[in-house]
Design goal:
By secondary structure, this protein is an alpha+beta fold. The chain folds into four domains: 101 residues, no CATH class; 96 residues; 107 residues, Vaccinia Virus protein VP39 (Rossmann fold, 3-Layer(aba) Sandwich), CATH 3.40.50; 198 residues, Hnrnp arginine n-methyltransferase1 (Distorted Sandwich). It is 36% helix and 19% strand. Strands 8, 9, 10, 11, 13, 14 and 15 form a seven-stranded antiparallel sheet that branches. It has a five-stranded parallel sheet with strand order 5-4-3-6-7, sandwiched between helices. Strands 12-16-17-18 form a four-stranded antiparallel sheet, with no helix packed on it. Strand 16 and strand 17 form a beta hairpin. Helix 6 packs antiparallel against helix 7. The longest helix is centred in the first third of the chain and has 34 residues. The protein is globular, with a radius of gyration of 29 Å. The N and C termini lie far apart (61 Å). It catalyses: L-arginyl-[protein] + S-adenosyl-L-methionine = N(omega)-methyl-L-arginyl-[protein] + S-adenosyl-L-homocysteine + H(+); L-arginyl-[protein] + 2 S-adenosyl-L-methionine = N(omega),N(omega)-dimethyl-L-arginyl-[protein] + 2 S-adenosyl-L-homocysteine + 2 H(+). InterPro entries: Arg_MeTrfase, Methyltransf_25, PRMT_dom, SAM-dependent_MTases_sf, Znf_C2H2_sf. One of its GO terms (biological process) is methylation. This is type I protein arginine methyltransferase. Its EC number is 2.1.1.319.
C-alpha cells in the first residue's frame, strides 16, 4: 500500500477511535454525568438553558479559546455551585486569552474533544485558507503594474501566503495530535509554537471578525447587550402599558397559558405570572435569556416560567396550544426588524382558535406633514460648509433613509392620517384619493398575514396652517383589547404629540420642499415592503403630486 493509502487509513482509524472511545462526560454546571459529550451538550441546553455550541459561535472562538471557555466554566462552577454561566460573555476578557485555562480541570475531559461544532474540519479550514488567500490575491490584483517595485511586492505577498499555508498546516496537525491522540493533554510542550499561533492570529483575526459577523445572526447578537434592554425597560410608555395590560385584567389572565415571543429579560413573562397565569413559556434566541432565567429565579417565579432558547420557527413547546401570546415586537415605524413575522408564526402554530388573545391586539401606522427648518439646517445644510470645505456628497443618504428622531409637536402642520393597509400589488404608483373606511385602519394582529405586512396605500393630508412641507413624519399606535365585557383596554402612542418613546418617530424628507397654505390638500401613495437585501429593513416609496406645480414626484427610502 502506498503512503497516500496509509494516510487515508490512519485518518479513518482516528475517526473510528473518536466514535468508539466515547466516554461518560460530566456536566459543566452540575454533578450530572452523561453517557457522552453529545448528551452533555444536550443536557446543558435543556437543563441549564446554556448552548455551548451557540456561545462558541456567538463569541467567534477559535479552537484554543473554546478550550479555555470549557475549563473556565468548570473551574468557576467547581468553586461556586451558584456560578452564573451567563457571565462568561460579559467577563470574556478574563479567560479568553488566559493560557492557564488551556490546562484541563478534568484530566482527559471528553468535552474538550467535542469542541468542533462544524460538520467538516477540512472544509472549514479550507474555507479559512481560501478567504485569507483571497485577501492576499486581491491585494496583488489591485496593486499589479509593470514596475519592479510592484513585482517585488507581489513576490513578498506570495511568500507571506506560502508561510500562512504552512502555518495552517502545522496548526491543524498540532490540534489533531495534541487534543485527539495525546492522552496527557496538560503538557505545555505539546502545544503549537507561539510563532505559529502568532502568525495565524495576525493574519486571520480581521478576516475572522468579518466572517463571524455575518455567520452569526447579528439581530439576536445585538439583543444580548444590556444597553438595549435598559433602554426598553426605562421606556415607561412602553413598559407601563404592558404592565397595565396584565395588572388591569388579572381576572382574564388567571389560569391562562401564556407564550412570550422574544422575551428578552423576561419582564412581560413576569407580569403575566404575577397576574395569575397558570404557566408562561418564554422564548428568545439571544443569550439574554440566561439572564432572564436568573432574574425569574431571583423573583421566585422560576416555577411559573419556562425559558426556551431558540428561534420560534424551530422550537417545540411542551403544550399543544396557548391562551395568550404576548410580545413586544414593534420596531421603528412599527415594522422595522421584521419580528412580527415570527409572532405570526407563533400565533398560527400555538394560539388557541376562537378565544386566543394577542397582546397587543391591534396596531395603526400614521403619517403627518412636517415643517422643521432647524432640523433641515442641522442635518442637511450642515454639509454645505464644514470648516470651509464643501461636504455636500455627505447629503446623499439624508433623503434616501428614514430619519429616526424625536419630532417636536410644533413641527406637525397637517392632520394625521392612518395608512390603509392592504397587500402590495404591482409596481405602478397611481395617485388616487384615500379611502376612509374604518375597517382598513386597523392591523388586526389576530388575523393579519405576513404578506399583508407589505402594503401600498393612498393618503391625503390636509394642512392646518401655512408653511413649508419638509418631510412626512410616521409613527404608530398600539392597543390591547380583550373580548370580555369587563376588560380594561390599554392604548399607547408613539406620536410626536405625546411623551417620547425609544421608538421616536420616523421621518421621510422630501428632496423638494413644498410651500403650502392652510387647507392645501397633499395627495400621494405610500408603499412599504421588507427589503430583499435585509429582511429587517424596510423599503419605502412615497409618490405624490406637488399641489403647486401639479408635478408627480417619487422618492425611495430605506428604514434601517
Amino acid at each position: 500500500m502506498n503512503d497516500l493509502d496509509d494516510d487515508i487509513d490512519n485518518d479513518n482509524s482516528i475517526d473510528e477511535w473518536i466514535e468508539d472511545d466515547a466516554t461518560p462526560c460530566r456536566c459543566l454546571l452540575c454533578p450530572a454525568v452523561l453517557p457522552d459529550p453529545d448528551a452533555t451538550l444536550a443536557h446543558l441546553t435543556s437543563a441549564h438553558a446554556f448552548d455551548l455550541a451557540k456561545t462558541h459561535k456567538l463569541l467567534a472562538l477559535d479552537f484554543y479559546a473554546g478550550i479555555r471557555l470549557v475549563n473556565y466554566i468548570r473551574a468557576k462552577s467547581n468553586a461556586d455551585p451558584s456560578f452564573n454561566v451567563a457571565s462568561v460573555i460579559e467577563n470574556r476578557d478574563s479567560w479568553i486569552s488566559d493560557d492557564a485555562y488551556l490546562i484541563p480541570v478534568i484530566e482527559n475531559d471528553p468535552l474538550l474533544y467535542a469542541l468542533d461544532f462544524d460538520d467538516d474540519d477540512d472544509d472549514v479550514n479550507n474555507d479559512e485558507e481560501t478567504a485569507i488567500a483571497n485577501q492576499f490575491s486581491n491585494s496583488v490584483f489591485l496593486e499589479t503594474s509593470n514596475s519592479n517595485a510592484d513585482k517585488k511586492k507581489i513576490h513578498s505577498l506570495e511568500h507571506q501566503l506560502a508561510e500562512l499555508k504552512a502555518a495552517f498546516s502545522e496548526y491543524k496537525d498540532h490540534v489533531r495530535d495534541t487534543f485527539l491522540r495525546e492522552k496527557d493533554s496538560s503538557s505545555s510542550s505539546s502545544l503549537p509554537s507561539s510563532s505559529t499561533i502568532s502568525l495565524i492570529k495576525q493574519t486571520t483575526v480581521e478576516n475572522k471578525k468579518e466572517e463571524t459577523a455575518w455567520e452569526m445572526d447579528y439581530y439576536f447578537g445585538s439583543y444580548a447587550e444590556t444597553e438595549i434592554h435598559e433602554t426598553m425597560l426605562k421606556d415607561v410608555v412602553r413598559t407601563d402599558s404592558y404592565r397595565d395590560c396584565f395588572y388591569s385584567n388579572k381576572d382574564f389572565f388567571k389560569n391562562k397559558i401564556v407564550l412570550d415571543v422574544g422575551c428578552g429579560t423576561g419582564i412581560l413573562s413576569m407580569f403575566a405570572a404575577k397576574s395569575g397565569a397558570k404557566h408562561v413559556y418564554a422564548v428568545d434566541n439571544s443569550t439574554i435569556i440566561l439572564k432572564a432565567k436568573e432574574i425569574a429565579a431571583k423573583n421566585n417565579l422560576a416555577d411559573k416560567i419556562t425559558f426556551i432558547r431558540g428561534e420560534i420557527e424551530s422550537i417545540t413547546l411542551p403544550v399543544a396550544k396557548v391562551d395568550v401570546i404576548v410580545s413586544e415586537w414593534m420596531g421603528y415605524f412599527l415594522l422595522f426588524e421584521g419580528m412580527f413575522d415570527s409572532v405570526i408564526t407563533a400565533r398560527d402554530r400555538w394560539l388557541a382558535p376562537n378565544d386566543g388573545i394577542m397582546a397587543p391586539s391591534h396596531a395603526d401606522i400614521l403619517i403627518a406633514g412636517l415643517e422643521d427648518e432647524e432640523w433641515i439646517n442641522d442635518k442637511l445644510n450642515f454639509w454645505n460648509d464644514v470648516y470651509g470645505f464643501d461636504y455636500t456628497p455627505m447629503k446623499d443618504t439624508f433623503c434616501t433613509d428614514g430619519q429616526v428622531d424625536v419630532v417636536s409637536p410644533r413641527s406637525i402642520i397637517t392632520e394625521a392620517v392612518v395608512l390603509k393597509v392592504t397587500a402590495s400589488e404591482g409596481s405602478e404608483y397611481k395617485i388616487v384619493k384615500s379611502e376612509r373606511s374604518e375597517s382598513y385602519r386597523k392591523l388586526d394582529l389576530a388575523t393579519i398575514t405576513s404578506p399583508e405586512l407589505d402594503f401600498k396605500t393612498p393618503f391625503t393630508l390636509k394642512f392646518t396652517k401655512p408653511g413649508r412641507l419638509h418631510a412626512l413624519c410616521g409613527w404608530f399606535d398600539i392597543r390591547f383589547e380583550f373580548p370580555h365585557k369587563d376588560a380594561n383596554p390599554i392604548f399607547f402612542s408613539t406620536s410626536p404629540m405625546v411623551k417620547p418613546t425609544h421608538w421616536k418617530q420616523t421621518s421621510f424628507p422630501l428632496e423638494v420642499p413644498v410651500d403650502v397654505n392652510a387647507g392645501t390638500v397633499f395627495e400621494g401613495v405610500f408603499v412599504c415592503k421588507k427589503s430583499k437585501e435585509n429582511v429587517r429593513e424596510l423599503d419605502v416609496v412615497i409618490s405624490y403630486v406637488d399641489p403647486n406645480t401639479k408635478t408627480e414626484r417619487s422618492q425611495k427610502f430605506t428604514v434601517r
